Amino acid sequence: MANGFFTDTTLCIGCKACEVACKQWNQLPDDGYHFTGMSYDNTMALGSSTWRHVSFIERPAPIGDADTGGLAWLMASDVCKHCARAGCLENCPTGAIIRTEFGSVYVQPDVCNGCGYCVSGCPFGVIDRNHEDGRAWKCTLCYDRQKDGMQPACAKACPTASIQFGEINDLRHRARERVDKLHELGVKEAYLYGEDAASQPGTEGLNAFFLLLDKPEVYNLPPHPEVPTHKGKKSWISAGLAAIGVTALAFASVMLGNSARE
Amino acid sequence: MTEQNSRGSGPKSIGFLTGDTDDGRNIDTTLGTLSGEAASQATLATKHDVVLHSKAFPYVPSSQSQASPSYYNQPLLKQPVWIWSIPAYFYVGGVAGVGATLGAAAQLMAPKSMRSLVIRSRWVAIIGGVISSGLLIHDLGRPARFLNMLRVFRVSSPMSMGSWILSAFSSAAGAAALAPFGPKLLQPLGEAAGVLAGLFGLGLSGYTGVLISQTAVPVWQESYRTNPILFLASGAAAAGSFFEFFRLNARESHAVERFALMGKFLEFAALLVLQAEARRVSRVARPLEEGFSGFLWRAAKLAIIAGIAVSVLPGKSRAKSVVSGVLGSAASLFVRFGVFYAGKASARDPRASFEQQRQLSGRPR
Asked: Which backbone phi and psi does B187 adopt, to 5 degrees?
């Protein structure tokens, strides 16, 4: 069984209740007070102490056929994707990052030694190291709440059901119905991002997937993310060949040197 | 009483709604407990002033008004958190690792005439291995937990493999270096350890190239084929250059010079191939051409060419060996730091990832 999120950005009203609920439940420290000028977004990105992040996109183009004065304000609540093939987990050298019984990707703070390899392994730029305590942190999909049979704090707090929590197959079914419904209503741009392995082979699907209205880049999401392990595997072959080459070089040099006159 | 800003260790004062922690959590510890998933996370320096980001954001993140959209030019990826000690380790590991390989080759092919090279390579290996561990531990967020690196054996993680390789390498190199001081009975074991150190040395210098390939950083990922080749070649050039500093007999120094020279040629070729690979997506190659990393990259090329020029000059002298050694060592350091800072710059550029993925998504993986 795998649980996850379906974040329907067409329902997001940018209230940031998810950000607040996440901070409160997980007892995350604040990040200071920033005024960025990026629409209503003052948290900027996911990070070690920001596990839900609402992006605000002021777009000079309407949605669908709606008469919105040529404007649209897109909002989307971003979160760790809990990828089926998670770059952070596959890179972690200590076993601190594990796959839980709920299918989520979880960092054990008492094991993490702060090597930082997960940070570079995430194609979404989600996980980050807290520079004060040296450990990597990210969304836990409310592991503690799930163990008690509760839904994650952000989904619970979301007033518009933009964040939906549930069993991943149920969510996919619900999401596809929603896309059909939106297309019927004239919102032809609506599509799902990372809902399964077929649509996003690089990650083999996201346990937290999204319904978007514009290119992924607009929401700061990669268009075709791929777990870095694929590249690493092929890189080992190069390393093997190069090792043989350097060994040959060493033997050749010793032979040349040995035949030299004293 | 307002001074307290510990990690939620207790209330400022006891009383109704006055027990708030002042650690950026504002939890009244007389009413609640600090037991959330992130309750142990250290407080980031909490500033109570508003930070104004004066930089204006000229780009609206919309695909309809821009051919190449991004989210207010914010980075997509997190910049690698590693510090200077990581590229320094790439260099030291390269010298120690490939140095042990050269030593093992000498031990097998010319055990008598190159004995002093063999012994020196073992000491370079063990001292390099110890310095390597120090540099790596220095970079950890939690240095006291460095032993957790050997907690699991995870084939999917080049860093886990690397930790085991470094441990095996240092053990073998240490045994090989110390064996001559032991009883005669142990000598064959010392020789075997020398060969093992040579083998693990190849892994030590090569795995770091795999390690950076297995990241989401565009420029590192794009050159996944060449990274380990460049790292091993640079290791060969650096090890050869390092041995040029020693006073060796004629045969040994001839072998070392040949090795350094061939290593430099290979290193230069790998540099060019890596850059050509990165240029398939112009945005990805940018950090190799611009900024601090671009400067290091050019410096590396110049130093290699200068090193080759000095090596092929006729005649033999101590000064020539030392100059060649200095140039070769500098080139390898420029290569390691250049690759490292190119990765940092690449991760800061969201469009490098976007264009790489858009352009190459049709390419078979």
From this structure: -55, -45
Residue-wise DSSP of A161-201: SSEEEEEHHHHHHHHHHHHHHHHHTT-TT-EEES-STTT-T
Closest chain A residue to the Cα of B100, Cα to Cα: A250
Check CB contact of B37 with chain A, cutoff 8 Å: yes
**What are φ and ψ of residue A238, in 5° steps?**
-55, -45
Contact A247 B105 (CB under 8 A): yes
User: What is d(CA A163, CA A161) in angstroms, rounded to the nearest whole number?
Assistant: 5
**Scanning every residue of chain B, which has its alpha carbon at the shortest distance from the alpha carbon of A36?**
B53
Neighbours of B314 (CB within 10 A): 5
Residue B219 banded pLDDT, cuts 50, 70, 90: very high
B340 contacts B90 by C-beta, under 8 angstroms: yes
Strand A97-99 with A72-79, pairing: unpaired
Which contiguous run of DSSP H or E holds residue A97?
strand A97-99
Q: What is the pLDDT of residues A148-187, one digit of tens each?
A: 999 999 999 999 999 999 999 999 999 999 999 999 999 9
Q: Round to whole Å and give the CA distance between A17 and B112.
A: 75
Nearest to A215 by CA among B365, B351, B217: B351
Query: Is the Cβ pair A246, B232 closer than 8 Å?
Result: yes
* CB proximity B160 to A under 8 Å: yes
Percent of chain A scored above 90 by pLDDT? 86
- With an 8 Å Cβ cutoff, are A49 and B41 in contact? yes
Contacts 24+ apart (CB under 8 A), B317-325: B318/B247, B321/B244, B321/B245, B321/B253, B321/B257, B322/B244, B322/B245, B324/B241, B324/B244, B324/B257, B324/B260, B325/B241, B325/B242, B325/B243, B325/B244, B325/B245, B325/B260
Write the residue in A117, A125, A242 that is nearest to B76 by C-beta. A125
Joined together, the tokens standing for residue A140 give 């836990």
Range 306-325 of B in CB contact (< 8 A) with A: none
Size of interface A-B (CB pairs under 8 A): 396
Please tell us whether the domain made up of B85-214 is placed in CATH 1.10.10.10.
no
d(CA A156, CA A159): 8
Q: Is the pLDDT score of A192 beyond 80? A: yes
Measured CA to CA in angstroms, residue A110 lies from A139, B44, B161, B352 at distances of: 16, 19, 22, 35
Q: Are A163 and A155 in contact (CB under 8 A)?
A: yes
Residue A233's H or E segment, with its range, is: helix A229-258
pLDDT in tens, B79-102: 999 999 999 999 999 999 999 999
User: Mean per-residue pLDDT for B205-233?
Assistant: 98
Q: What is the pLDDT of residues B168-213, one digit of tens each?
A: 999 999 999 999 999 999 999 999 999 999 999 999 999 999 999 9
- In chain B, which residues have their Cβ closer than 8 Å to the Cβ of A47? 78
Task: State the complex-level ipTM.
Answer: 0.95
